[in-house]
Every structure is written in C-alpha cells, then in structure tokens.
Amino acid sequence: MKHKLPAFLEGIEAPVDGEIATCKFAVSRMGENAVVVGIDEVGRGPLAGPVVACAAVLKSPDALLTLNDSKKLTRPKREAMYQAVQDACECFAVASASVEEIDRMNILEADFLAMRRALQALGMPGIKESAPQIPIFQKGSFAKVLGSPLKAQGSLLIAVDGNLKIHGIPEEIQIPVVKGDGRIASISAASILAKVFRDRYMDELEKKFPGYGFDKHAGYGTKAHLEAIRRQGMTPEHRKSFHPKSLQTELDL
C-alpha cells in the first residue's frame, strides 16, 4: 500500500522544520519519551553493488542545520559533511543487502532487509536477520537513547523515506514520507551516511575490478559502464537481474 504525505508535513520544506514537526507528532502519539528514527536507502537502481540503508536518530532537530537530501549535494560536499553528520547523530547504523540477496528476493525486499538489519543493529526487538556480508557501520544504540532496549519498539516512530512501510516491522510505528530525505532531518542524515558508505564501498570495488569505473558511476547503468561490461564481462558484484534486455541479448545472460 502506497502512502501519501502526512498532513502535519504539508507545506514544510526545510528538513529541520520537518524534524520538529515529526517529533511533535511522535510525542502526541507515543508520549514524551518518543524517539524519531529516520531511515533511507541508496543503491536501488544500479547494475552492480549492494543496496545500503541507514537508520539514524539525531541529538536534536537542529543538530546540523546543513542537512539535506544527499542527492542535492555533490560528492565532495557529502564527504566534507560525513563526520559532522555522524557527530550530529545520537545513534545510527548503516547496513546492506548483497547482490546475491537482491537477485534472489528482488530489490524492494532486499531494500527492506537492509533497513531491518540497521534497526536490529541498533537494538530494536523482534527482528532476527542474518548478518550482512559487509560489516555494519554503527554508532550507539536505542538502549542509550531510551535507557532500555526492551522499551525501544514502543517508543520509536520510524520515518521512512518514500511511500511504503518496511515489511516485517509493525506498521503502527512507521510513517512513510514522500521525498523524506529533503523534508525530515533524521532522514537526511541517514541519506548522507548511506550514500557516502556505499560510494566508498564502490571505490574499493574499482580497485578490485579495475576498468569498470565503479568509483565514478557507483554501479549505475551509464554508457561507460555498459561498454565496460561488454568489453570485460560481468563481475560477481553485478546484479544478474538488473541488466538491460539489449545487454542480456548481447552477452547471452
């Protein structure tokens, strides 16, 4: 089920203002100890590499005023902000789902898997996912924020970028936000952390598989990337379920 923009966010464009409005909504719904968790992902569209998700809780709505959608920031700007974003978070976890998992279960379910892994790493009860191939990058936990891991699920409001709720997580504690990475600061933080984490991983893939340009296109289907696949074939990091039909025919995949 696709969800529309929550009424309390209508007319709000600045991420800090959106974070404040979401925190007020969370308190009205869950009580004074409610905590807003922003979640975003990166890597749904590429032909290669993992999908990466981040769950983040800010120290305060205005902990970093320059937070915004990672797609609106250049890579040098994201890199320059990376440590400041980490410092602005009370806790965060960056998790992933592998190429094999993407091909086996489809990209949407793999996306949700990465999100559940991030929430599990922070201590959300009721989730029992296997560890991802790429080690989780993490700071703190919900226990530190809430004082007790057992109270975490009932005290969290999970703000998810997009119009869908995460499968396998209680629906009543989730709120999907269309273009949330530009509307809610904690989602903006998650967006930047996930993007920088994945970009750096793709940089390492270029060292491992030189000539594909992973450090430039991050696995997306650019002309140069497609030409590299035709020239060098696929690597184990390429998603077999994602290649254009024309390329599948050429390579007889």
Task: Write a concise keyword list for the protein shown above.
253 residues, alpha/beta, six-stranded mixed beta sheet, 42% helix, globular
Structure in words:
The chain is built from 10 helices and 6 strands, in the order αββαβααβααββαααα. The model has no long low-confidence stretch (mean pLDDT 92). The protein is α/β, with parallel strands linked by helices and 253 residues long. It is globular, with a radius of gyration of 18 Å. The protein has helices at residues 15-30, 75-88, 99-105, 107-121, 142-146, 152-155, 185-208, 214-217, 223-232, 245-251, and strands at residues 35-42, 51-58, 89-97, 137-139, 156-161, 174-177.
Question: How is this structure best summarized?
Answer:
With 253 residues, the chain is of the alpha/beta class. The chain is 42% helix and 15% strand.
Rg measurement, Å:
18 Å
Relative strand content: 15-25%
Fraction of helical residues? 40-55%
Give a short account of the largest sheet. 6 strands, mixed
N/C terminus separation? 33 Å
Number of helices: 10
The SS-based structural class is alpha/beta
The shape, in one word, is globular
With strands numbered from the N-terminus, the spatial order across the biggest sheet is 4-3-2-1-5-6
Q: Name the poorly predicted regions.
A: none
Mean pLDDT: 92
Q: What's the β-strand tally?
A: 6
The H/E string reads HEEHEHHEHHEEHHHH
